[in-house]
Amino acid sequence: MGKAQKKTGKGRLDKYYKLAKEQGYRARSAFKLIQLNKKYSILESSRCTIDLCAAPGGWLQVASKYMPANSVIVGVDLVPIRPIPRVVTFTSDITTTQCRNLIRNELKDWKADVVLHDGAPNVGTAWIQDAYSQSELVLMSLKLAVEFLAKGGTFVTKVFRSVDYNNLIWVFNQLFGKVEATKPPSSRNVSAEIFVVCREFLAPKHIDPKFLDPKHVFKDLSSSINPEDKGVSMDKAQANVFHPEKKRRHRDGYADGDYTLFKILEASTFIREHDPIAALGGANKISFHSEEEKEWLALHITTEEVKANCEDLKVLGKGDFKALIKWRLALREELGIDLKAKDIEDAIEQVEVVEVVDEEQEISEELERLNAEAAARTKRERRRANEIKTRTIQRMQLQMTAPLDIGLEQSDPTLGLGQDDMFELGTKEEDLRKSRKTKLAMDADGDEDFGESSDEDMESGEEDSPLDSEEERERKVADLETEMDGMYEAYQERMRERDAKYKVKEARRKNKEREEWGGIKAKGSNDDSGAEDGEGFDNGEDGGWDKLQEAKLRDSDSSDDDGSDEEVGPTASEKKKRTREEKGIDVGPKAKKRLKVSFDEPSAKPATSAAAKVWFSQDVFGGLKLDEVDDEGEDTEDEGALSEESEIEADEDSETSETDEDSGFEVVPQDNNDDDVDMWDGDEEDQSERVQKRVRDFGLNTPEAVMIAQQLINREKTKTQLINDGFNRYSLNSKDDLPSWFLDDEAKFYKPNIPVTKEAMAALRAKQRALDARPIKKVAEAKARKKFKAAQRLEKAMKKAEGVNTTADMSEKEKAQAIDKVMRKGLSSGKKPKKDIKLVVAKGAHKGLKGRPKGVKGRYVMVDSRMKKELKAKKRKEKAAKKR
Ligand SMILES: C[S@@+](CC[C@H](N)C(=O)[O-])C[C@H]1O[C@@H](n2cnc3c(N)ncnc32)[C@H](O)[C@@H]1O
């Protein structure tokens, strides 16, 4: 069985609908007549055809097409029909005499060879009523047909399969030689319509009016129903007795050979029937004739009420039907057809026993299932976490975010150095608070109570020593600065909240700083020497530089006390002293150990700025290890703790090292196998690799870079010269004690101003133009979309053409034309070309004219002469611009 055809929604738009559209028919029903005509050849020989209920005119179009030229075609409908060549149409009700007169006037004394009827009243919810009207309409059309048909003529009508169907066929048979019912392929399967073709009209001299009178033709029906339910047939009676309001559509009419209206249902049938409700719905009475049935009457379950109900089913209500169904069930149990409730319980118990046996297996299966589910869930979660981590790392690599922003797990090994910074920043606020507290305490007491944060200072007896005014002033200045820093931080915080971009920038900056000063931070945080930790080595939020300075200050402070804390190890100045004055003296094992550890750790990188890296990469420093460079001269105080540590390390290998007191550098041979040297180089390599990659990917994208490259290529400058150009007298200035806001501003605005040459700018512009000339992604996408749509249109057109090709009822020429039309449509862009709008200048005869000017066809716009000139000029300019 094929799929049921849909009559609603898109199901309506089937093959015939599309074909009708393509071939210009007004209704898909046109194909029904085409197919009927193909089967019975009714139109080709007809000289006069009347189409009753013809709107919108599909059948008229077919008639006009297939009937010989000069034939007469008359169409009638309740609604007006748009004109069709050589067809006369009326608007009239076919059941009225007015319609009859109109046709008579048109035909004069002519007779029609064919009368067509495709009428259908609006089929609404009251289908049975509608069906009756349809039958009536058919009879009315037959009345007109017998009046206007010539002998031997043909009457084609649409009939719905209903109780009236046979009556109608009987009448047709009385008036026509041949009566055939057929359903053309274009008629939807879901539709109950059938077409009856009545040929060879007998044209009797006298026709009994009863043949055409609905009261007589459908007599059986009207007598068997009650007056309110006009047209209700047995179909209604078969409706579900429990839902009488729902009328079922039975389009099959009567069951074959069963035309009786009073139905008796045998009790045995009712009891053994599988669908008792339908049986009750179709019957008037339940009878007890057989011996067995009579025995049932004697049973106690067959109460008097049941017996009374069986007498007349048509008067029963819902409750009565329920009682009958209950009685049926009880009787079935009695007869052993159905299991009794107790038996069912026993059966259930048995089943339960069996279930207990299987319980264990079920539990284990359930457990397995749960385990599998849990495993799958864990796997899913792990995968998701990994994805998030990968994405975050990628973002970090792209410098889109910093670990601080994304709050990665603290124990995440992928973060490495960044983790310590998080702790540092975490304590930032607290430190600020502490410093404020300190200030408050100082202001209140008038002395230098540094609170808990300066325990060490107190230990060293500083709190007892009176401060001279100079020191006091310095401290106040320092406090003021701290406060300013705090305010600046608050300002930054506000900015961060307001500006997402600033946030990103800030994160990047911090990231960069971390990269640059990671070694020192790491040392500070990794170092377990109590003094450094306790002092809040992480206090500074401005990166390694400030911390370095703080550390140095502390070092110099603690050098004053007598090394009370052994765990601290040698301070920087002590170390330096030992390096320079007490060479050869053993460094304490603890310190050595600590230094070794911090050197081995990747975080213990030398604290050198990027500028310093570049500086020391000059030829003159060739053969030196950066971390072993000891700037002893005026910059002694600027040295990082780690470089000092490396000195000590170098001292350990004092046999191979030599000191150049004059130059201020300790020169250590390059082949010295220090791990950190490799690390340093590796880092630099990484950086240059990164730069090279960026250049490879994006090219040189600033005029300065292009210019420098050009200078290098043209040998206008050497590499060394370029490096030297990167320095000025401020390059290596100490950033000591500089407030963070100043450093921030410096980072923002202190940029080298490299003069750019004309050539460099021209080269960059040329590159940019080449880039601009490439189609942008959206344009490329739009082009691809256009191409795709064109291909789709073509494919659709080819399918349509195939459909036309397989249509049987078209000549080859018509097919060729239709295919040509379809293909042309498919190949076109689908957009209608814009119609030209004519410009009419409002001067001369056209001046002040209202309405269409004479001799102007199509769309037009009235313009004054200036407007026209302006438009022309605009077009000219556009054209010129395009040419350029
Ligand atoms: C299915 S359409 C006919 C389609 C037509 N054969 C065609 O191919 O275009 C049924 C038509 O019957 C018309 N109709 C229904 N009752 C009518 C009546 N009493 N008199 C005239 N037309 C009627 C409706 O107006 C409707 O247009």
Automatic annotation (TrEMBL):
UniProt source species: Crepidotus variabilis
Residues forming the catalytic site: K158
Lineage, top ranks: Eukaryota, Fungi, Dikarya, Basidiomycota, Agaricomycotina
Acidic residues: bias regions: 444-471, 529-543, 558-568, 628-664, 672-687
Start-end of Basic residues biased regions: 844-857, 871-884
Domain named Ribosomal RNA methyltransferase SPB1-like C-terminal: residues: 659-879
Biased composition (Low complexity): 604-613
Bias (Basic and acidic residues): 491-505, 544-557
Annotated GO CC locations: nucleolus; preribosome, large subunit precursor
Family: Belongs to the class I-like SAM-binding methyltransferase superfamily. RNA methyltransferase RlmE family. SPB1 subfamily.
Chain segments annotated as coiled-coil in the UniProt record: 353-384
All residue ranges annotated as the DUF3381 domain in the record: 244-395
Protein's name according to its UniProt entry: Spb1 C-terminal domain-containing protein
